[in-house]
Specification:
By secondary structure, the protein is mainly alpha-helical. The protein has one domain. Helix content is about 80%, strand content about 0%. The longest helix has about 45 residues. It is globular, with a radius of gyration of 23 Å. It starts with a helix and ends with a helix.
């Protein structure tokens, strides 16, 4: 439901901007900005990546930047820039959380059962959980970046999984921005889009939305099933998961990581 609402808001925003372009001179502003980006491509790309990273690291939304990149830099250029900015942001947030947050917060977080379950799921699922969460954003993108750094997953498995799994969503938002650019251009007689161009653009948008929704549905189903199986597996002692936190007392380890003797000694104490 959240994904439908978000995409509906994006489509509404693109439509409103297109319909009001004459009254608000949106087209002139857009052309001026695009012209500056064409004349100063390095500066424009650098400012875009910097603004993207600064906003998302402060837990702001990422999708407006992806839409803007499609409108400003085109489909290929916008996708490349948005992908680079998204992955640099994810890597930076991961490293911040891993080196500045994991050690100070670890003891405190492990007091909570949901965090124990999260640690256990990440220890057993690893990069597969990252792929499923990126495709099915149960947790917002900007929050995910920090959660992975606080968990026990490695940097490179998380980074490579994110690189692949963020492609469908990024492509959809960039496509919307690119289509919005065509809409603005279509309001001027000097740059007519043509019926065939509009049909191809709309067909491509529908195909992208359907594909993204289908992948989201599959990822959500797989994530639910895998999470349930991992949590259920954590309810039984498993020697291989004890290595996740070998130095912690039994009561502070993730579920299912204590031997029977340790559990009995913990209860008696």
């Amino acid at each position: 439901m959240g994904q439908w609402l978000r995409w509906g808001l994006v489509l509404t925003a693109v439509t409103v901007v297109a319909l009001s372009s004459r009254e608000w001179s949106v087209y002139e502003w857009f052309v001026s900005g695009q012209q500056w980006a064409v004349e100063h491509p390095v500066w424009a790309a650098g400012l875009f990546v910097l603004a993207y990273m600064s906003t998302v690291l402060l837990l702001g939304p990422a999708w407006p930047f992806a839409v803007a990149s499609g409108a400003t830099f085109g489909l290929a250029g916008g996708f490349a820039l948005s992908t680079m900015a998204a992955n640099l942001t994810a890597m930076t947030a991961f490293l911040i959380a891993r080196h500045l947050g994991r050690m100070p917060l670890q003891r405190w977080l492990e007091r909570f059962t949901p965090w124990q379950a999260w640690e256990h799921i990440m220890a057993r699922g690893g990069w597969r959980i990252v792929v499923l969460l990126r495709l099915s954003p149960v947790v917002p993108f900007n929050v995910q970046n920090y959660l992975y750094g606080l968990s026990n997953i490695g940097f490179w498995p998380c980074t490579l999984a994110s690189l692949v799994a963020m492609v469908p969503g990024t492509l959809l938002y960039v496509y919307l921005g690119w289509l919005g650019q065509w809409t603005l251009s279509g309001t001027k007689p000097s740059t007519p889009l043509g019926m065939a161009g509009w049909l191809l653009a709309v067909a491509g948008l529908v195909a992208t939305v359907v594909l993204t929704l289908y992948l989201t549905y599959l990822a959500r189903q797989a994530l639910t099933a895998r999470t349930a199986s991992l949590v259920q597996a954590g309810a039984h002692p498993c020697p291989e998961t004890k290595a996740v936190h070998p130095s912690l007392p039994c009561r502070h380890r993730p579920l299912g990581t204590c031997s029977q003797d340790e559990s009995l000694s913990t209860r008696s104490s």
